[in-house]
Design brief:
about 50% helix, Rossmann fold, alpha/beta, disordered N terminus, about 1050 residues, single chain, 5 domains
Length: about 1050
């Protein structure tokens, strides 16, 4: 694979291993580790390294565990003489060239195993975060931390607390009032949100800014211009007016004149310019005149001055518009730092920042801490180096420098094509820049180009797709002349892989699919592929987003397939655990009827009580006549069951520690005898593990219930083993894994510069060397400023690299077969990456050479309606009596149809002067996208009903509003802080109309009227206008005024 360096002149040395996907990266890392243990570093000397001298850094716990396992496996094979021929050639032969005695090698292996057992803490194969945490733990006093500080993985709940404190101080602190008012004004201007409750959005923005700040370990700096933008805007408008008056309008393009006139009308009375939808004429360097006309030179000079001023205004706008965000962030960060210091907490994403602060500021700390480590550590091995951030690199650099100075080595492995964690600070340029830090040392670089994972047809397909020629054609098709594509092509310059000998076969199928009913089409195709495949095939469906993973998981579960995904392996999404949580919630709050019902209708109680589902079901819905808690009725109706299962813990639950209560529940309900337990026991033990983890903070059961939502995704996940299942996961989670069959249902390349989650405003955080700057971005504004354009197109280039790298990772996970589907949407650039035939299909290889007989075992589902255990809510205890109403079960189909009509109407706004049928079609399309499942929905039927409602002469004033504004699904906050969502508000000049959509249930009309009266009161308080309220019955098309 690569030359082993064990000659005298080899050390010190830097060794770079550029390892493409599936080329044996972990194997080579483990091999290098053993060579460092066994091969003397100097000729004629017997001194070798030991585990204390070697630091191996990975980026995930899984990778660290895998590397440790591989090293121990090799040591065991050496001792027992179990190495295969390839391993003997790669591992043993180079060692024997140096030691000349196989017994000595075996002796060294035995001593190493014994050393690992006795001094496991020196077996340093660990994540970068774990390594930095060790340093901080030992030298916490240098960092101003208590030695007993706690590491927290989640900072969101603490930011939430600080935002609450900010809001509480609004009336008492003038500085808080000032920054919050400014933030709110900018928020409505920038985000264009209709919600009047912005706390959640504020927290999301602050979390985003916090993560970026910790990633770079830098502060945000506001842009403070010398001249205020309002003054420049006023001067600019006057200059435009002057230019417009002097312009010979009959001698220039009419559209140019119209554009200037419109701009003046829109901005004459504004304090700052309206920079949205700027005319493209402002990008013209010359005035667009009619043929043969020569414009006055003074006008040309004035026009250039106007363009320069506009450029200046746009740059001021882009750089200073987020100053209020920085103000509020600085306040919240200050409060957060104070709080975590008091609580003795350090967040996981702060580890590297803390060390970096000391390295940058404390001259004493570096020699006393890092040099102590460096005297012990002689060799550094770094895995997945392309995922290393500059911050992480600067933190380990002193150790590496000292190791090399003392005759050690640096060995790092990576693949720039697989850098998909740029959002966490990784930088692919670092991979090639490292040798620049150590110019006086020998540097050796080797490429691993043989793919040991995938079959021939898959390797050849990926070679073609990610070849420089194909990528060059792709980049030319997407057409962005402002980007240097050579940088992108250089990343894929070594993408061509060789095929492992005798690894023939393989199959690739791709299809370009119309976006119309895309989800329905893909759902059927996935089901068909899985059904036809062999039952022993390991199948993975890889997607970009968690929502897509949940969507696909639902499709497969609905079809009866066994699925392993983040959702199905989430301990708190498991029904057995949900039933236990429901029981605990009931014990903590006995009036919580919903939790009690969820438990007694669940599998645990049904199995242990020997009652039928119908018996419990009938009992529940017969007990809805008064306000007596349901458990008391149950106690009267089933005294023996109550005495046996509930009484032993009913009055004492609060006195148990959480762990002890779970054990007690398992004894009372005799879990070991239950079939449902044996099917779900790993989830129960995972629940116990999570409870045990919280005991250091508090052991009460109520505390555990409160903290359920604070567990991270990784903590909530169960590691599944045993029965083969269909894996559904994000592409990021699949990195480092391999599967026999890979299905990619949503192959997209979407470049949205500055897009963050669901925020409407686009911005990026720019690293300005000593600080961070928030810059507003849009393609439109970038056209008017070279500076903004440079930032915009640099971010575009980085996003394009991210997208290509994600696809590369996805397409290189498969061993035998790949099936991928590309949406045909206009904005999806991925369609230019593949050469589809006339039938919009691309294939590679021969499917017939593979076994295709998948057995679809469907779950036996009960036809009877079943109430699932309650989901975890933010408000954990239901203090108000909750009733489960039987009419909802009886009228289930009518309610579902009404909800669908409601959803469609919720996206239909003012239809005045609009094509009604087209608007209804668009509303139905939007509704379809929101639904996880659209099985058996007759959309034509719903379209007809909606059109009948809208065109009803008695209802037209609700949908056609010539002189007013229409708000759909508008949220209003009550004085108690609760939220009310109103279906339709019509604001006219002299009054406001509130409309609530309902189905006509006679027994509910009084409840509807009471609700609408509350809505009227709230709306009248907001708009200060007379308010009318109507209920529109969707099933009868009848409108009544309340």
């Amino acid at each position: 694979m690569f030359e082993v360096f064990h000659k005298k002149e080899t050390y010190p040395q830097i060794y770079i291993l550029d390892a493409s996907a599936g080329s044996g990266k972990t194997y080579n890392l483990a091999k290098q580790y053993l060579h460092l243990l066994f091969i003397p570093q100097k000729v004629n000397e017997q001194q070798t390294s030991n585990i204390r001298n070697i630091l191996a850094i990975t980026f995930t716990n899984k990778a660290a565990s895998e590397m440790k396992q591989r090293i121990l496996e090799f040591l065991k094979k050496i001792i027992l003489d179990l190495l295969d021929e390839k391993e003997k050639k790669d591992i043993l032969q180079p060692v024997l060239e140096s030691l000349n005695d196989e017994k000595q090698v075996i002796s060294l292996a035995e001593k190493t195993i014994e050393d690992i057992i006795r001094n496991y803490h020196y077996f340093q194969v660990q994540t970068i975060d774990s390594f930095i945490n060790q340093i901080i733990s030992v030298y916490s006093l240098h960092l101003g931390l208590s030695p007993l500080f706690k590491i927290k993985t989640q900072h969101k709940e603490y930011i939430d607390y600080c935002v609450d404190k900010l809001i509480d101080n609004y009336h008492n602190d003038k500085s808080v009032k000032k920054i919050l008012n400014k933030f709110v004004n900018n928020y409505f201007y920038l985000e264009h949100r209709k919600s009047w409750y912005l706390k959640n959005d504020v927290i999301e923005v602050l979390n985003l800014l916090y993560e970026v700040a910790k990633k770079y370990a830098k502060k945000y700096q506001k842009f403070e211009p010398e001249v205020h933008i309002e003054r420049i805007s006023k001067s600019f408008i006057n200059k435009i007016k002057k230019f417009f008056n002097l312009l010979p309008k009959e001698k220039v393009y009419k559209k140019f004149v119209n554009a200037l006139e419109r701009f003046i009308e829109e901005n004459s009375f504004r304090r700052t310019l309206l920079l949205k939808n700027l005319s493209n004429y402002f990008t013209y360097s010359n005035i667009p005149v009619l043929k043969n006309f020569v414009i006055d030179k003074n006008l040309e000079v004035l026009w250039r001055s106007i363009r320069d001023d506009l450029k200046h205004i746009i740059e001021l706008h882009c750089f200073q518009i987020y100053n209020s965000y920085i103000d509020i962030f600085d306040y919240v960060e200050k409060e957060l730092n104070l709080f975590v210091r008091q609580e003795n907490i350090l967040f996981l994403n702060e580890l590297n920042k803390k060390i970096n602060e000391i390295i940058s500021s404390d001259e004493y700390f570096v020699p006393t801490v890092f040099m102590k480590l460096a005297t012990r550590i002689k060799h550094c091995l770094i895995d997945e180096f392309q995922d290393t951030s500059w911050l992480q690199w600067n933190n380990v650099l002193p150790i590496i420098e000292e190791a090399l100075a003392n005759g050690g080595s640096l060995f790092y492995v990576g693949d720039k094509k697989q850098m998909i964690y740029r959002f966490s600070g990784s930088e692919y340029t670092l991979f090639d820049d490292v040798p620049k830090f150590f110019s006086r040392y020998k540097v050796k670089k080797t490429y691993l180009s043989t793919n040991l994972r995938s079959k021939k047809e898959i390797v050849e397909f990926n070679n073609q797709i990610f070849s420089e020629q194909n990528l060059g054609q792709f980049l030319s098709k997407i057409g962005n002349n402002n980007i240097n594509f050579e940088e992108i092509l250089s990343i894929y310059s070594n993408s061509q892989q060789k095929v492992k000998e005798d690894n023939t076969g393989g199959y690739v199928y791709g299809e370009l699919v119309s976006t119309e009913n895309y989800n329905e089409i893909i759902k059927e195709k996935i089901k068909q592929i899985i059904t036809e495949l062999h039952k022993d095939k390991e199948i993975a469906i890889l997607v970009r987003r968690k929502k897509e993973a949940e969507l696909v998981s639902n499709w497969l579960i609905e079809a009866g397939f066994s699925v392993e995904s983040e959702r199905t392996l989430d301990v708190f999404e498991n029904n057995f655990v949900k039933e236990i949580i429901s029981l605990i919630k009931f014990l903590l709050t006995p009036t919580d009827n919903l939790s009690f019902v969820s438990f007694i209708l669940g599998e645990i109680f049904l199995e242990v009580s020997k009652l039928s589902y119908n018996e419990i079901y009938n009992f529940v819905f017969e007990q809805q006549k008064d306000n007596v808690p349901l458990y008391q009725k149950f106690k009267q109706s089933f005294p023996q069951l109550w005495e046996r299962f509930f009484q032993p813990i009913f009055e004492t639950a609060n006195f148990y520690a959480a762990y002890d209560l779970l054990v007690k529940i398992s004894e009372i309900f005799d879990f070991l005898s239950l079939n449902s337990f044996h099917q779900n026991y790993p989830f129960f033990y995972k629940l116990l593990e999570l409870i045990k983890k919280l005991e250091n903070e508090c052991c009460s059961i109520s505390y555990f219930i409160e903290k359920i939502d604070s567990f991270t995704e990784d903590e909530r996940q169960l590691v599944a083993k045993g029965e083969k299942q269909i894996n559904v996961m994000t592409i990021h989670k699949s990195k480092g894994l391999e599967f026999e069959v890979v299905i990619l249902p949503f192959v997209r390349i979407d470049i949205e510069v500055g897009k963050h989650k669901d925020y409407t405003q686009r911005f990026v955080v720019v690293d300005e060397k000593d600080y961070l700057r928030i810059v507003k971005l849009s393609k439109e504004l970038a056209e008017h400023s070279e500076h903004i354009s440079s930032i915009y197109h640099n971010e575009y280039k980085n996003l394009l690299i991210d997208e290509l790298n994600v696809l590369y990772v996805a397409f290189t996970r498969a061993k035998e077969q790949i099936y991928f589907f590309v949406p045909e949407g206009r904005d999806n650039l991925a369609k230019f990456l593949f050469s589809f035939n006339d039938n919009k299909v691309i294939t590679h290889g021969n499917l017939q050479s593979l076994s295709l007989s998948f057995v679809n075992k469907k779950n036996n589902m009960h036809n009877i309606l079943k109430l699932l255990p309650v989901e975890n809510k933010n408000k954990l205890h239901f203090m108000v009596e909750q009733k489960i109403e039987k009419f909802e079960i009886v009228n289930k189909q009518r309610i579902i149809e009404g909800e669908l009509l409601h959803r469609i109407l919720s996206v239909i706004h003012n239809l005045y002067n609009k094509d009604v049928e087209k608007e209804v079609e668009l509303a139905i399309q939007k509704t379809q996208k929101l639904l996880l499942s659209q099985r058996r929905i007759n959309w034509q039927k719903y379209k007809t009903v909606i059109l009948n409602i809208i065109t009803n002469s008695q209802l037209q004033h609700i949908f056609f509003v010539p002189n007013g504004e229409v708000y759909c699904e508008q949220e209003i906050i009550t004085s108690d802080g609760d939220t009310r969502r109103i279906d339709r508000i019509i604001k006219l000049p002299d009054k406001v109309i509130v409309v609530d959509y309902k189905l006509k249930f006679v027994e509910k009309i009084k409840e509807y009227e009471k609700q609408l009266k509350e809505y009227k009161t709230l709306v009248q308080q907001v708009f200060s206008l007379p308010t009318k309220g109507y209920i529109l019955f969707l099933d009868t098309q009848h409108l009544i005024e309340v």
